[in-house]
Specification:
126 residues, mainly alpha, 72% helix, globular
Length: 126
């Protein structure tokens, strides 16, 4: 069973990494899935992923607080607008646009209602 979890984790990780470089493909949902799978298949891989300097903070924020950082929210909103805009430019049918509007609207509400994450206190200069 561990091998199945590890394989699923690597598949999700590959999709997440692809999402980091391909426009309009999500990254963090796949990284969260990879962390979930690795937690069940390999403690070492889970620790590596959650400690990764690039991908780890988003995973840790979600696991600890159910939070999405403001910069990630902005990027997600831009991606959502770009997706809908490309559909308009491509001349998608009204049915497709309506389905997209409903789904992307629900995704937008979900993202915007998540907390921003823990507040980082910075020392005040005197």
């Amino acid at each position: 069973m561990r091998l199945i979890w590890i394989t699923a984790g690597f598949l999700a990780l590959a999709l997440g990494v692809a999402g980091a470089v391909l426009p309009l493909m999500p990254t963090v949902p796949f990284l969260l899935l990879a962390a979930f799978c690795f937690a069940r298949g390999s403690e070492r891989l889970h620790a590596w992923l959650t400690g990764h300097p690039r991908f780890g903070p988003a995973i840790r924020d979600w696991q600890a607080h159910g939070a999405i950082r403001p910069a990630a929210k902005r990027l997600a909103m831009l991606s959502i607008l770009a997706t809908f805009g490309l559909s308009l430019i491509a001349g998608a049918s009204a049915t497709v646009l309506a389905i997209q509007a409903v789904v992307l609207g629900c995704v937008t509400v979900f993202i915007l209602t998540r907390p921003d994450g823990p507040k980082v206190s910075r020392p005040v200069a005197e």
